[in-house]
Each structure stands twice: as C-alpha cells, then as structure tokens.
Design brief:
Length: 329
C-alpha cells in the first residue's frame, strides 16, 4: 500500500520523540485512627530525571528535609509522618506546583478516619483543589476514566502495537475481531494483576511488550514481501496472546498510582473503560487518516511499504535493549 507514506512520516516524527509514557503524579494523604497523617508523594520520572512537580499543602506540612525518600523505576517517592496535633485536614488547599507546565495529571487520594476516601484529579489547567471532606464523596467515576484514557494515549508502545495491527489487518470484520480479542485479553490480565492474583515483574513485562512489537514488525515486513505469517493468518489469536502481556503493563501503571481501598473493583472497571475509550478513539482516528491517505492516489516505489515495519521494529528493539539494561542494572 504505497499510499501509507504520509501516515508513516507522521508517526515517525511523533514516535521518535517518546519512548516512555509520563505516568501521572500521585499524592496520598491518609488519616490514621489517632488522627496522625501519613502523606506519600510519587513524582514521575522521565528518563532518569524527575518531572519538576512539587506538592504543596496550605498547612505547610511538606518539608523536604523531613521526608523519607525512596524510588522505583517510574517514581521518586517521598513520605511524611504528621503528628496528631496538626491543623484540620478539611478545607486545606492542595497544589501541584509545576503541573501547569506539563501534559500529565496528578491524582490526589485522601482517606479520612471518619468520612472514607476522596479522590481528586488535578490537571495542568487546574493544578489545585480545596479539600472538602465534611461529607462522603460520590464514587470517583470520571477521575478513573480520565486516568485510563490518559494512560493509553501516553503509552506510545501500546499504541504502536495497535497501529501495527491496523496496517496488517485490512478487512473490517477481521479487524473488529482482532481489536476485540486484544481488548478482552488485556482486560483479563489488568484485573488479575491489579487484584494481585498474578504477579510479574514490571521490568520483565515492559521488556516483553517491546518484543511483542518487534514480532509484529517482522510480520509486517514479511507480509509486504509476500510471506504471510501467523499474525496475518490468525490476527485475533496473536492480538489476544499479546493483549494478555499488554494488560500487565496497564496494571503496573495503575498499581503505582494506587486504588481507593473502599472502591477497588469500581476504580479498576472505570480505569479499564477509560483505556478502551482511548484505544477506540485512537483506532478511529488512524482509520480516518489511512482512508484519507489512500484517496491521495500516490504513486511510490514498492519498497516504501516496508518502511512502517522497519521503523516499528527499530523502535521496539531500542526499547527492548533499554528495558533489559534497566532490568539487569
């Protein structure tokens, strides 16, 4: 399909700019039975540097010199212990300084000793909130749907895998079954991993996801050379098997952000709904662009068709090596 050259160029520019998603920041404030507070701040890492985000609470509790510091692969973590004789948590103002200069979000979870859990999603356009904790909060439906949408849209590796399927599976009915199989599969492992029924190292999962994309790239190149492989013949099977793997990646992101203890099943469902909305929106936009490119009636050399596979494969192997090095290091 010579007419794909335009979309290839667009994806090359977009893809080269990002190898990792920027995960949302996370601030948890937990009130204990004695009214002391445990405050946890998770600052996302981009490459090897923390995204310049700084939490502020109007009571002035977040003194860096008093914080206990640790880190994971995706976050720098700070923890504070606030004694019981603190100012009231209700009506405190929370701000994430620097959020307005990013494209990420910040999830604020507050658990009180009397009124349950509260969830707030701060965004670059409104990086602050006043905590109204006087009465229980309704279930945080929209917050977790937004998190799911943001996660899939910022996860370029997941989107690249889906895009590879769109290039390989051209018949509409087969494409519907393929995307459905991918959706069912990653929903299964997202639930199992989030509920701790299965546990797999996030580093291993991320490296394996990169390999799944490389496999799809090889299948794509072989297809344009006249050798139809397993993915072309049984796309739903391959998308289901690799969808199980990608679901573990979604679960890793969700577990690092956190779930409200009194609403875990609902939050999990809503996050998954958000992922599906984001994925379907991406598929719809890509199909519209591909349809537009085909109408251009471009006359290009046959070898141009191999460019998507080589580009996807090169980027996937770069991610694989990078993630294996992180796993070993």
């Amino acid at each position: 399909m010579n007419r794909l050259i335009l979309i290839i160029a667009l994806l090359t520019v977009a893809g080269a700019a990002s190898a990792h998603e920027i995960r949302p920041a996370y601030l948890e404030i937990r009130e204990n039975a004695d009214h002391s507070l445990q405050i946890t701040w998770k600052q996302p890492i981009m490459g090897e540097v923390g995204v310049p985000l700084f939490p502020e609470i109007s009571a002035g509790w977040l003194n860096d010199s008093l914080a206990e510091n640790s880190y994971t692969e995706a976050y720098l973590i700070k923890r504070w212990q606030i004694p019981p004789d603190h100012a009231s948590l209700d009506q405190q103002s929370v701000r994430i300084r620097g959020l307005e200069r990013t494209i990420t979000d910040a999830l604020v979870q507050v658990t009180t000793a009397t009124n349950g859990s509260f969830t707030f999603l701060l965004k670059p356009v409104q990086p602050y909130v006043t905590l109204n904790l006087s009465r229980p909060q309704a279930p945080p439906v929209w917050q977790y749907i937004q998190l799911g949408i943001y996660h899939i849209w910022s996860g370029f590796d997941h989107l690249l895998f889906v895009f590879g399927l769109l290039l390989l599976v051209k018949k509409t009915s087969r494409l519907v079954w393929t995307i459905t199989a991918f959706t069912i599969a990653h929903s299964i492992t997202l639930a199992l991993a989030t509920l701790h029924i299965i546990t797999i190292s996030p580093s291993f999962t991320e490296a394996a996801i990169a390999l799944s994309i490389a496999f799809l790239a090889v299948e794509l190149v072989n297809h344009y050379n006249g050798n139809d492989g397993l993915t072309y013949r049984y796309p739903w099977l391959v998308s289901f098997l690799f969808g199980l793997l990608h679901g573990l990646g979604f679960a890793g992101a969700l577990s690092e952000v956190g779930l409200p203890e009194n609403n875990i099943p609902l939050a999990l469902l809503l996050f998954n709904v958000g992922v599906e909305i984001g994925q379907l929106a991406f598929v719809a936009v890509m199909l519209l662009i591909l349809a537009g490119v085909r109408r251009l009636q471009l006359s290009l050399p046959a070898w141009v068709n191999e460019i998507p596979g080589y580009f996807i494969g090169t980027l996937a192997m770069y991610w694989f090596v990078e993630r294996v090095m992180a796993l070993l290091g």
